[in-house]
Amino acid sequence: MGSGKSTIGAALAKALSFQFMDLDHYIEQAEGSSITDLFQQKGELYFRRKEESYLAQLLSTSEKLVLATGGGTPCYGTIAADLKNNPDVVTVYLKHSLDTLTTRLYADKNTRPLIAHLDSEELLNDFIRKHLFERSYYYNQASIVLDCDRLTPNQVVEKILLALF
Fold first, then answer.
1. In a domain, 41, yes or no
2. How far are the Cα atoms of 15, 75, 134 from residue 72, in angstroms, in the given order?
3. Which contiguous run of DSSP H or E holds residue 95?
4. Residue 103 has what pLDDT?
């Protein structure tokens, strides 16, 4: 959350002449419900199973695709390993410092249901720290791990392109 997956993904797709897809938006369209409502009404396990299923659908197409996943996607089931072992998939971890993520997310926390209730930067910082700690094992399995602090979106895309080619 807050790493720039959708912004960078769309710009990278344009640079590569690929299609761009945000997995969360794809799920919302397919399910006819928001991610927040899916979590509240059907639970996280239902959501994670659907997420895995829709991801498999997207990966089975022959379309050239840049896909922005949710932050929790690679942490569920065998998704991280499946992505890593797929020769047609290159994964990218857009790595930011805890302070950068806190600053970015605090500015627009009211538009993000998972963090809207956190009413101080300190609480948000603790939330992010916990999630990064829990997820770092999965994130660091990415094909490309890119430190994005102090880089513009164009610079991030440029670095990804250099790493790909």
1. yes
2. 26, 5, 10
3. strand 92-95
4. 92
